[in-house]
Amino acid sequence: MSTDLEPPPLSDSSLHEHQPLHHHDDMETDVEHPPLARLGRWAHSHRKFVIITWAVLAIGLGVFAPRLEHALSGAMWEVNGSESLAARDVIDEQFGGLSSQSAVVVVQSQSTPIDDPAFQQVIADVNELIAEEPGFGQPMPAQPGMDGQTVMIQAGANVDPTEAVRSAGDLGEEISKLSETVAGDEISVALTGSPAFWDDFNEVNREGMLKAEILTWPVTAVILVIAFGTLAAAGLPLVLTAAGLLASMGVLYGITQITDLSIWTLNFAMMFALALGIDYALFIVTRYRAALHAHPEDPQHAAGIAMDTAGKAVLFSGITVLISLSAVLLVPIPAFRSMAAGMMLSVSFVLLAALTLLPALLGPGIDKFALPWHSKGDHHSEFFAKLADRIQAHKVIVAAGAVAVLLALALPLLGLKTGMPGITVLPEDEQARQGYDMIADGFGPGGPGPIQVIVPADGDAQAVADQVMATEGIVMAFPPQPGMEGASIIQAVGAYDPSSDEALALIPTLRTDLPDGVLVGGPVAENYDLDQTLSQKAPLVMGVVLVLGFILLMIALQAVIVAFVGVIFNLLSVGAAFGVGALVFQHGIGAGLLSFDSQGYLTSWAPLFFFALVFAISMDYTVFLLASTREHFERSGDAAEAVRGSLGHVGRPIVAAAGVMIAVFYTFAIAGTLPMKEMGLILGTAVLLDAFLIRLVLVPATLYIIGNKAWWLPRWMDRILPNVKFAH
Asked: Would the pLDDT of 727 be above 60?
């Protein structure tokens, strides 16, 4: 890279005397040559072609969108290469699919004995219903519980986990009819197990998503109307976001015909892409309106300016989001990789729509249907410029106060606990939860999640069973059952809830004490392997996100110190958001307001997965603010003037964009399932803190403190970095 100036020295005084990095007589110089400017001008001049192309994409692919949710899988939480997955494979091959993916029917009565003919008839009816469902194999003999009032009938899946969930839905309907028939005999029947859990969860999730969507779109529309002051401008972010989402959902449906995708993919992709799409559109539209005000005779030129400034920031922001999500692909968990890949696809479509469809939609008519508070003119806000002046006057106190608040909010992380979602994520009236509770009553707390021990053909199954039964924390072990190739399975019941820390602690104990060649699997073991993998991979994922984020910021901003400050402040945002999440979901503060029962911990995959998302969002605002600051610094060469100018120009769009994001995320926190509530609250809080406390307060104060040396770049780095400019 070559520049017409040497890198500035580290002293404020010499830098202050330095000429602007890139001299421009006017903020709106010709933008015909930069690539994004050319893209914006081309899209604007070929608007019919671009709009028709996107209409074909959105409609042609969007017709498959309604089918997507029914094609997604609720499973996929196994860890590739883990002992629990190896045990599941053996069980599926040799024991009729009696793994964690099997269906479990519970029959229970407080008054009718198990050996009563009426009770036995219900068992026979259950066996017949299972045999008629092609997704499951022949039911195993009924196993009586310790209470003498409960039996459990297990049937392995004949199909993959996704199809097993659908089969559980069909079987659940028949079991419900049977339960209603025998209710007069005071006999209860319920279907539970992993496939039934996910079938019920998917239905609850669909209802939550519908509620969230009903709330999200109107609230978003209102915020955009207030922010833009015209109905025409307010509608553009909604149009491009809808187009991007419809196209991506159609592609995701096509992918489900080739491989499984997690149900979480749709939830997270829709929420994240919706928020980011509107975010991107808002910044580009705001900058276009300002450029059009300066060049009313040339809308195409204005589109080029908007794309080469705000569009460039959007591109860097989108790349940052994709990089953060790509790091999640390092985790060997299919659900994780599925969610990350789905979100990357949705964000890519929305980003593409922002860079192509949006400039095609821009034009002089953007100010049509103006509302009373709308005012044409420059997008500069004197309010935020004066805010910058007040921050400069008390920069040290302001910076210290903001950091103190963020650290205080992050304190609950010191006692953070994590765990896999328990049965409480389902409402009490769902069949899978009722069956779960019935098993817990009849077989003990560990009954719903038995530990499955596989003894190889050359092993002593009975000796292993005796050793399992002698293990502290095991209250019940069924006799060894032989498999088709000589191996044996022992199903043990622990004394603890399957999602508890005590239950998880049984797994390493058994794996250490039992003979070599014995596999320990089942739901508890799968949760243990998942938890261990997440803990092991978290430093790698977080490290990759931080390093790549720093490199990208350094490329975009052409400054080492500013890039470092941006990454550090992003970490503060992440820590504070998770601290609030721990207060709410671990300690139950505000649980009633959000309508959930606290599990006493945060979902185990939340810290790693949400870290990538929160960091991506933080980088989003970092890029928008600091790109504008860089633009003003390139023009003036004065750091203080750059801070004031950038806050005056992007303060209002940041507030509006943050308002949209907060509305979207908090809506899902109110209406969604527990995992959606966790994501919605943590991400919404991250945006709230990041936009209003970090970007509008802490970052300006810090830049004022550091001065011109914040934009220092070593000469050797100046030569190798791509030449990125934001000034016009």
From this structure: no
